[in-house]
Specification:
The protein is built from one helix and seven strands, in the order H-E-E-E-E-E-E-E. The chain is an alpha+beta fold. The protein starts with 6 loop residues before the first helix and ends in a 6-residue tail after the last strand.
């Protein structure tokens, strides 16, 4: 079946292309954002992080831990030991960090990292 492009659709597509042209050109010209900090986590991929009391909590494919953004220090880190990665953001209670994967759940102390 041949595609018929009538004048109305041709003009709509042309107008849309002309309107988006500056945005496409501007997006290509922007420089990438600078990296401010790199913290070693022993993970090849981490999920979204959580923040509380000046600490950042992360969970990834191999380990779970906490870092101090002010000093750049890793406060604690533990291998979770499960066969699947942590895929959910660490949830924080008053004293615990709770995180999990598709088939597991783990809880750690926020300060010391003890299970």
């Amino acid at each position: 079946m041949p595609l018929r492009l009538d004048r109305r659709r041709f003009l709509q597509a042309s107008f849309a292309g002309l309107c988006l042209w500056p945005a496409i050109g501007h997006a290509a010209d922007t420089a990438p954002l600078p990296i401010r900090h790199l913290w070693p986590t022993d993970n090849s991929r981490i999920g979204p992080i959580s923040e509380a009391s000046g600490r950042l909590f992360y969970a990834g494919d191999l380990s779970i831990g906490a870092v101090s953004p002010a000093g750049g220090d890793r406060l604690w880190s533990h291998r979770h030991g499960f066969d699947s990665p942590a895929v959910f953001r660490p949830r924080l209670t008053a004293s615990l960090v709770v995180t999990g994967g598709r088939r597991w759940l783990a809880a750690y102390d926020q300060i010391s990292g003890a299970e």
